[in-house]
Design goal:
Elements: H1 6-13, H2 17-24, H3 33-46, H4 52-59, E1 64-69, H5 75-90, E2 94-99, H6 104-116, E3 121-124, H7 133-140, E4 145-148, E5 159-162, H8 164-177, E6 183-188, H9 193-206, E7 211-215, H10 220-232, E8 239-242, H11 245-257, E9 267-269, H12 276-279, E10 286-288, H13 291-303, E11 313-316, E12 319-321
Parallel strand pairs: 1-2, 1-3, 3-4, 4-5, 5-11, 6-7, 6-8, 8-9
Antiparallel strand pairs: 10-12
Helix pairs in contact: 1-2, 1-3, 2-3, 5-13, 8-9, 10-11
Length: 330
């Protein structure tokens, strides 16, 4: 059986081929809503599938957007990609996701691979604030590129991020309001802009002598390592701010095994508000990113003229989500 053609849809809907094409391409300008409804109904009834290769040849666009994230092992980046995917789908496109394995060299390869696949634009969550810059600048000179969640020096393009300093202030203020004043920071990956900003904000609030446990990466295993160090210092620490949820999960599990009560002895916060925190015992306080609003803005910038993507950082405000890991009244 021959697959239905665009002409078949047009005839079934009683419209011209041009009208059917505009509706099914997602650009129904100057098309009567009733005609558009008939075209969409006919396409569903006939099982019509758009020929994306033909559209790419005709318009120079594919409808595909790429994103390169540092790693898919961290559930936050999966949540981030999903937020972007929802907005890309709503705009009639598809999202292609790639993992940089926390390596700037692999990140550069993945950028080139996606662009060679003729995506219409690219989001990147840079692995490094310094080393990611050259590859990003090269890509941004050829294609629309927007950085998401993190920035990189010399990228040549705009970044849509969280206000990390404001987020750290929210966490520290909350802990101090619950009577915690001997606060430590567990953080990782200071090569990234977000990691560096969170460390700078914490030491700015707590002073250069603040207790910090710095780790090579954001993983639950790194959180367990931090937990062992915190246990050794438990008599002089009553709260821990973790720079990522995965660190908080690993840390809390180690505190439990060491019979250090959370939050009775030590309160713990995460950072990213991934879904796993609600399932943990106790549920963990964290910072929620306005990912949907950030994704909407980032997509707008990606589709805007190049002059609107000058290198700068646009910051969104965080939200504190308080749970039992810091609430002694729970």
């Amino acid at each position: 059986m021959t697959a239905p053609r665009l002409l078949d849809v047009a005839e079934a809907a009683g419209v011209s081929r041009a009208t059917a094409s505009r509706v099914l391409a997602g650009t129904p300008r100057n098309v009567d809503p009733e005609l558009a409804r008939r075209v969409e109904e006919a396409a569903r009834r006939l099982g019509y599938q758009a020929n994306h290769s033909a559209r790419a040849l005709r318009t120079g666009t594919t409808g595909a957007i790429g994103i390169v994230v540092p790693t898919l092992a961290n559930p936050y980046f999966v949540q981030l990609a999903d937020a972007i995917a929802q907005h890309v789908r709503a705009a009639g496109g598809t999202l292609m996701v790639s993992d940089a394995a926390n390596d700037p060299a692999i990140e550069a390869e993945q950028i080139d691979t996606l662009l060679a696949g003729r995506v219409d634009g690219l989001f990147v969550v840079p692995v490094s604030a310094t080393e990611s810059g050259p590859a990003l600048r090269s890509a941004a000179a050829r294609h629309p590129v927007v950085l998401f969640d993190r920035w990189a020096t010399g990228s040549g393009t705009v970044a849509v991020t969280l206000d990390n300093a404001a987020a750290v202030r929210l966490l520290v203020d909350h802990l101090e309001q619950t009577g915690r004043h001997r606060i430590a920071l567990v953080a990782a990956d200071q090569a990234s802009s977000s990691g560096a900003e969170r460390l700078a904000a914490f030491t700015g609030l707590q002073g250069e002598g603040a207790t910090t446990v710095l780790l090579p990466n954001f993983t639950t295993d790194a959180g367990r390592t931090a937990g062992r160090r915190i246990v050794e210092q438990r008599d002089r620490i009553d709260a821990v701010v973790c720079g990522a949820d995965v660190l908080a999960v690993g840390l809390v599990s180690t505190l439990h095994r060491s019979s250090v009560a959370v939050p009775g002895k030590i309160a713990v916060t995460g950072f990213d508000d991934t879904e796993i925190l609600e399932l943990f015992d106790p549920p963990i306080t964290s910072i929620r990113h306005p990912l949907s609003a950030m994704a909407e803005r980032a997509l707008t910038l990606l589709q805007a003229p190049a002059r609107e993507r000058t290198e700068r950082v646009e910051r969104f405000q965080p939200q504190l989500v308080v749970r039992a890991s810091t609430d002694t009244g729970s």
